[in-house]
Write a structure and sequence with these properties.
Structural class: alpha/beta
Strand content: 15-25%
Order of helices and strands: EHEHEEHEHEHEEEEEHHHEEEEEH
Helix content: 40-55%
Radius of gyration: 19 Å
Number of helices: 9
Strand order of the largest sheet: 3-2-1-4-5-6
Number of strands: 16
Amino acid sequence: MKTDARKAAVIGCGYVGASIAFRFLQQGLFTRLVLLDVNQEKAEGEAMDLRDGLPYGAAMEITAGNYDDITDCGLIVVTAGANQKPGESRLDLIGRNTVILKSVIQEITAREFGGILLVVSNPVDVLTYVAWKLSGYPRERVIGSGTVLDTARLKQLLGGELRIDSRNVHAFIIGEHGDSELAVWSEANVSGLALEDFSCLRGRCLCREDRERLYQEVRGSAGEIIQRKGATYYGIAMAVGRIAEAIVKDEHAVLPVSAVLDRQYGLEGLALSLPSVVSREGLQEILEIPLSEEELSALKASAEQMQKAIASLNL
């Protein structure tokens, strides 16, 4: 079946899925959007609500549908799954959400889908690997939202700390989208100027304690939001919108998506979030960016956690 690059589907219409659909409406990337949910009435209600805004948004067709309606999609976004509760880590969701993802993948692979599969459900790195393993699709067609959101959080915090536009901050959170993630301070910069040098120019030299504080804020951000409002969804919707934009516009953008590794940093048999080139084909290349010895050690520790989590699933 021919793939329509301007048609997308969102599977799972909870807070995250609905927010992503709303972001897609704002962006105008797609001409057709299909919403799926185990609760069909919920999907229909979300589609109706979104259609009411069409006169003030992009021209597109928004419908609630089923798996037969999404086989020609250029992009399928999977958000279906249980939400992280206060006090839970993302890895605590692994059992429940693996079962849900398996059923979703079975439905998709039973049809002639030839587009990109973007996994957003948590734990996203583990589930990205599960989706790739079970689907049999090429690794470039199965990616996860990874640490794109975590990276945005770091940029936003650094922008506030240095009193500058966060869009000028270039830094990455890599590894697990979760507790073992790490900040790549050794390569962080502001418009090409090393972060350490730039911060001193701003009269705010960031010492090791400052960097650790900012890292802990990033790492604990989701938990803080969940504690206050029950769930996170606006930030991830913006992150997914950015990934979708890179795919639809064939940008060859560098984003820390989750992808199945092929000996990068000597690692394989798992998916991990690393800076990658994202284009119309999905994953074009995973970049082995320079890391300090401390960062490389932390990355391998994060990978070990992901491998243990994957091994527990007996795929």
